[in-house]
Amino acid sequence: MVQRLRRKPLRRQDVDTIRSATERVSTDDERGEVHYSNFGPSVLGHALAAKAGLAYPELLHDRLLRPLGMTATSVATRDDDLPVERAHGSRAAGRPLDPWTGAGYAPAGTGAWSTAEDLARLAAATLAGTAPGADAATARFREDGDTRIGYGWFTTRHGDREVVWNNGATSGFRSYVGFKRATGRAVVVLGNTDKGVEPIGLRLLGVPQEEAEAAAPVAAVWIGIGLAVAFTFLGGLSLLGTARRRELDRVTLLAATVWGVAYLALGHRMGDWSVVPAWLWPVGACLSAVGIAQAAARWRALPTVDAKVPWRRVLSVVSSLVAAALAVAAVVA
Question: Does pLDDT of 230 surpass 90?
């Protein structure tokens, strides 16, 4: 079971958040331009639910999920509602990520969970025109030269192929649902990492590889490799170099020790360990451990501050420690 996807960090927002935001929106009588929005579908979903006297998850179940037999699909507005047999999302490099829940942006996809089988039912019924609200897939407005949009579904022309689709992304998950009316073929691709799956879906629908891969550009592989190797070894090597200096004091050695550990943590979190051999990280950890041991051996013999202007040295070290803490906190959060 994989979480259905959208964009932007919308977790833990409630319905009151949507209501409050709606009150701050001004409108006019002229038609606007097409822009991607999570807010718009959320306003519409909650307005329809209020009209029916139901919460949005109940409305979705009654009007769509139950008629199509989508028994494995649900909306988790609280952590307690998360499916027991769900997939667990992560970064492409392997770092686990917490799933999103919340009632506010549920109509836009936050907290929605489904399976390939259930979404295949939806895609097939929409393609056949038998799904409730299937006409939403009819293109009505132009987004750009190749793409038009209906009520939630996009229609994009790839050469002589026209694909109706939707996708999305949330914490550690990606998905793509698409179909071609001309061939009657539909595909569902779900992934439990933050790597886009659109190219897979498009290739299955017959779109050429180069054009399909352009639908979900990814960062160069060497970036993740470089971060893994550099950060894993930089801290330990730097600490070893500092611990062997003749002129040294405790505050400088303390800063080098903290960075020795911080770089190791940054390498673990930011490196692409799906490509880099995992055994390199323990090697880097051992290198840092040797540096810490040498630092401990010299600690007693060192002065606390060895500088002509002590307060400058202390301020520099404190700033360095704060920077290390903030760097690790930013990546771990």
Answer: yes
